Amino acid sequence: MYYKALGFIVWRVGTRYLRKRYGTAPKKIGAGALVAVGVAGAIVIAQKRLGSAD
């Protein structure tokens, strides 16, 4: 219970600090990372499909 509360407090303070320091940059970085993961996943799936056709 205490660790959950401590984690919540650390999360809230950390996000406020990052937003104050960097503004909306973390959202942009997160969106870019999500797109990169999606592209990497599509490449892996395409390679598996092409590899199984041989």
Rg, rounded, reads 19 Å
Number of strands: 0
Low-confidence stretches: none
Portion of residues within helices: over 70%
Distance between the termini: 55 Å
In what range is the share of β-strand residues? under 5%
Shape: elongated
Mean pLDDT: 85
Total helices: the number is 2
Structural class: mainly alpha
Helix-strand string: HH
Main beta-sheet annotation: none
Kindly list the characteristics that best describe this protein.
54 residues; mainly alpha; 2 helices; 93% helix; 0% strand; elongated
Task: Indicate the topology.
Layout: H1 2-22, H2 25-53
Describe this structure in words.
The mean pLDDT is 85. The relative contact order is 0.07. This protein has 54 residues and is an all-alpha fold. Helix content is 93%, strand content 0%. It has a domain of 37 residues.
Short summary of the structure?
The chain is 93% helix and 0% strand.
